Amino acid sequence: MNVSIFIDDALKTIQRGTVDRKSPFKLPALSTSTDNKVFQRIVVARRFIEHDQSLIIYTDHESQKYHQLKTNPSCSLLFWDPKKRLQVQVAGEASFLDNKIDYWDKLNENQKKDYVINPFPGTEISSADAIVMTVLR
């Protein structure tokens, strides 16, 4: 396969992942690093901006992910399609949007509830008894 065709197909599949809830590219793994340590977590691909080939993900300003990206904006995303046995890794630099409310307002109430997590991500849990599970409906 021609490399430029592969890249075009990969970008289209990443873009599709932002609108198709069933796409395996909806939930890529984001890798960040700080203090010579690498961190990975699954994120939700929210929106693809075609003109600059950027991907929008959301994070809370209190999260470790936010602070890691502020400290070192170099990051990568790994997309995996198990049916096609295809993985696509994209490396780049994170930047932060000023007009965040425009994006937040486009989420439905169920999507907004996904960001109400207890305990807060990155919180050290001392034991199973320390976990408080909250189900929001």
Summarize the structure in words.
The protein has helices spanning 3-17, 64-71, 100-104, 109-113, and strands at 29-34, 37-42, 47-49, 54-56, 74-81, 86-93. It has 137 residues and is an alpha+beta fold. It has a single domain, classed as Electron Transport, Fmn-binding Protein, Chain A (Pnp Oxidase, Chain A, Roll), CATH 2.30.110.10. The strands form 2 sheets. Strands 2-1-5-6 form a 4-stranded antiparallel β-sheet, with helices on one face. It has a two-stranded antiparallel ribbon with strand order 3-4. 24% of the residues lie in helices and 25% in strands. The chain has 4 helices and 6 strands, in the order αββββαββαα.
Q: What is the CATH architecture term?
A: Roll
Query: What is the CATH superfamily?
Result: Electron Transport, Fmn-binding Protein, Chain A
Strand arrangement within the widest β-sheet reads 2-1-5-6
Structural class: alpha+beta
**Number of DSSP strands?**
6
User: What is the H/E string?
Assistant: HEEEEHEEHH
User: What is the helix tally?
Assistant: 4
Helix content: 10-25%
Weakly predicted, low-confidence segments: none
Estimated share of beta-strand residues: 15-25%
Identify the notable features of this structure and list them briefly.
4-stranded antiparallel sheet, 24% helix, single chain, globular, two-stranded antiparallel sheet, Pnp Oxidase, Chain A, 137 residues, 4 helices, alpha+beta
